Structure formats: structure tokens, C-alpha cells
From TrEMBL:
This is DNA (cytosine-5-)-methyltransferase. InterPro entries: SAM-dependent_MTases_sf. It comes from Rhizobium ruizarguesonis. It comes from the Bacteria.
Amino acid sequence: MTKKKEDTPFSIEEIALRRTASEIRSINDVILKNYVNAAESFGMLCAVDPALVDAHLMAHAGLAREDIERLRKLYAAIAGPLKEHMMLLLNSGISINAIDALADAHEDVQVSAVKMLDASKVLRIDEIAVLSELREVKAKPDWMRWEKHRSSTLESLAQPAVKIKIASLESKARVVVDGLYRFDEYWSDGSFEHDQHLYKDCHRILVSDASQALREFENVVGTGESLVELRTEDANYLAASYFALRQVSEGNFGYGYGFSLQRDVGVGGLSLADALSQLVPFDDYNSSAPKKAAPLKVLELCAGSGGMALGLQAAGFQHIALYDKGLSGILCGGPVH
């Protein structure tokens, strides 16, 4: 006769796992039964005004509005299709999330889920989602499923192209912002006063750059008017970017206009550059803003400093003014050649 092989004793890890699983299962069973009991208590409140029920439970039961709605849905499910199978559900080890998903599911899905429980299968939330998807596929006619597939395919394949267009818009907007800062620097240091050709060139380039960015904006996002109609803060700020581009593209900045956004979109007063901040990544936008004051290029000296003036011109100053005993005797030094 052969000796019967003795069973291998469980390891410490296996014993710990078994005990933990058993404790969690017991705790879950208690929680589930109490949760279902809480939902069943709504049966006594069917004739009470729902608004009054909400107010009382929020004040005295510590429930949020979404908690109350969740219990209402569960009560409707267990009082309906699941009523005859509650003991099976409670003894199945189903989780709170799974029973909530089951309560939200269509009646056909609930029936299919009960059949799974009859087969002694553990019902998880992902399996309920699969059952819901299968029912949706069966319920829809072929053309609707084909259209969903066609639409989702087009959207997924178009996303890379959309990202490229957005990157192009950001790049063009950054060029405009850089140009506005450079324009403002020349405006502030007096360069435009002494070189009207420089003003016209910078103005013309900004108008051209803004026109290109505006066309890109309309191609990717739409118009500012359509954004304003959305009535959200984010849309308003994006609309401000659109109107800033349009204002610059029309040449309405600089002499006679200033550098403020003329269109009020409900986000407060903005400069043209600040209005474009929604289109420029933060690192690029911050790097576009001047980090330090523009270098001094204009210097005024009293009489007797002619020699010093020549040295300062050589050092990079663009304009030297020499005062000789009064404002009437001003000598202006040009660039050193």
C-alpha cells in the first residue's frame, strides 16, 4: 500500500492573505447590507416632496445631494427588476461600486447580470460595463454603429493635424507678441521719434504677422464673436486674443491708438500683448516679456562735455544732446561713422 501524501502546510504569507480576504469579505457584506437597507428606507418617502426629503437628509443625515440621488436610484432598482434577486446579490460579494453601476444599468443588463450570479460568478463593475456596451451594440441599428465608428475614426486620425495647427497658431502668436514688445521698446526709448522709417517698417511687419496669425486662429478656433456667444470666462479670454490680433492686423495701434485692447469682452482692461497670452505657451510668453529695462541710448550733457560725448557715442549711445548755456544752444550728435 502506498502511503497517503500529507498536505503541505500553508506559509505565513498564505495564512495572512486568507485572513485578510476573509475579513474584507465580511466587512463588505456588512457595508453592502447596510447600504441596501438605507436605499430601501426611501420606500417610506415616496409620497413626500423630493425637495423636502433632500433638505432634511442634507441637514440631519449628513448626506450630499449626489448621495441622496444615488440611494434613490438604488431603491428604484431593488424595488423593480432586482427585487426577486436581492438575497442572491447580497450573498454574492458584490461591491458597492458594482451595485451602484447595476442600479444605473438598463433593465436588460440587470437581467443578464443576475444570470451571471446564478452561475456563481463574481459580478464586478467592469463586467457590468461590458454588458452595457453589448446591449448598446445590439440596440443600435447598423447605420448608427457604422456612423459612430466613422466619426470616431475621423476624430482620432485628425487629432495630430489639429495639434500641428495649434502649434502653428501658437508660433505665429508668439511672433506678434515679440513684435509688440519690440515696438513698445522702440516707442519708449524714442527711436521712432528720430526715425519715422523705422516706425513704418515695424508697424507694417506687425500688421503682416498679425494678419497671418488671425487667419490661423479662424481656421483652428473660429471667430471672436462665436467665442463670446459661449458666455464662459475661458472663451472670453480667447476671444480677447482674437480681437487683439484683428486690431493689430488692421493697424490700430501705436500713434493715435496706443497699445490697449479696444474691444471689451468682459475680462477687464488688457494690453494687446496681454490679450494674446492665451495663445502663447507660458514659457514662451514669459520669455517674450522684457526681463530688464531697455539699455540707455539717449544722453543729455551740459556744456564742456563734447569730448566725452564722442566717447559715449562710440560706446553705443545713439543720441547725444549738448546744452550750451541754455536750451537754445542744443547741439545734437549723430552716430559715429
